[in-house]
Amino acid sequence: MSYNILAINPGSTSTKIALYKEETKVFEKSITHTAKELEGFDEVLDQFEFRKNVIKSVINEENIDVKALSAIVGRGGMLPNMKAGGYVVNKDMLDTFKEGLASPHASNLGALIAHDLAEPLGIPAYIYDAVTSDELQEIAKITGLPEIRKQSICHVLNMRAVSRKIADKYGKKYEDMDILAAHLGGGISLSVHHQGRIIDCIRDDEGPFAPERSGSIPMLYMVDMCYSGEYTKKDMIKKLRGNGGLKAYLGTQDLRDVQAMIDDGNKQAELLFEAQAYQISKAVCTLSAVLSGKYDCIILTGGMAYSKSLMEKISERVGFIAPVEVVPGEFEMEALAMGARRILKGQEEAKEYVHP
Ligand SMILES: Nc1ncnc2c1ncn2[C@@H]1O[C@H](COP(=O)(O)OP(=O)(O)OP(=O)(O)O)[C@@H](O)[C@H]1O
Ligand SMILES: CCCC(=O)O
């Protein structure tokens, strides 16, 4: 039996769509959404019809025979109570989104749209390796306040996909490797993979600043800003995700622009580039303690991993821990489709989501 899988990935500034026939990508398209296009939507879930129509247009343009689809898989969002791997999009999951129990994130639309498109076709809708998949060991969940338990949030989908690729390269099973991975995209997160499980992570709000995110800030400054009366909660969250990091300093979240600024002699851009490498390296070193420095490798992935100079600066600082593997870009569409394929082939069981 051959499987045709449609993968959809709603991101903060784009919607990606891909069709896989078995392991082969038939096409992939990324539709960029301008800030102006999205500014009319108050909440992420308000973008449902807009994003769905974008996907439907691509389906029409690419002449996809939807009747031949075996399943639709969406990127999993900020749902509570998730483990890594695949889930069937069920009623409990849809209710959880509709009741606003998932923090806002564009990927929340993945499940909703996948379900809406799959239901009339009588095929399953899945999500895979959701952002909030949480398999942290107990000790990693402790914070300094008893009322706050750390919840895992990281680029699970890409970091697990790249880790599997590196395991292949090493001729080993992913489940037999100890890997420290850093996803360096518009947002940055890092994770420790031990026996196929992410047992600790550095979330995007507790680590390095990123092209469009503030990363961690000494907390007393944040408390002062929150209570200054100048900012709403929404403003503050936008500083954390969307308007922080390189963008806040230099007006661009594109590392290539920053590199061009440096070439033009911009000293602030140079300092920020150094600081970006410095903070990422410190985060890698922090996580290195989780497995007492014993890692098969460190993986640097995501869009920023295309920057040779950034990779050299980080490798110089962290290479003493383990070999550094640079895997530029992201493999999220492939990871979604291959996850769904494993489920369809019976190699992996899709979990049933339970309302929290
Ligand atoms: N060839 C390149 N050289 C240097 N930097 C690059 C290159 N290509 C992309 N980047 C940088 O990578 C960053 C975006 O990475 P990526 O595309 O992985 O992020 P995203 O998908 O928007 O967000 P996220 O990965 O957080 O979901 C940007 O700063 C971009 O400028
Ligand atoms: C760190 C959460 C994942 C994302 O921002 O895409």
Automatic annotation (TrEMBL):
InterPro entries: Aliphatic_acid_kin_short-chain, Aliphatic_acid_kinase_CS, ATPase_NBD, Butyrate_kin. It is an enzyme of class 2 (transferase). It catalyses: butanoate + ATP = butanoyl phosphate + ADP. It is found in: Cytoplasm. It holds the Pfam family Acetate_kinase. Keywords: ATP-binding, Cytoplasm, Kinase, Nucleotide-binding, Transferase. The keyword Oxidoreductase does not apply. GO terms for molecular function: acetate kinase activity; ATP binding; butyrate kinase activity. GO terms for cellular component: cytoplasm. GO terms for biological process: acetate metabolic process. Transmembrane segments: none annotated. Its EC number is 2.7.2.7. Belongs to the acetokinase family. This is Probable butyrate kinase. It comes from Aminipila luticellarii.
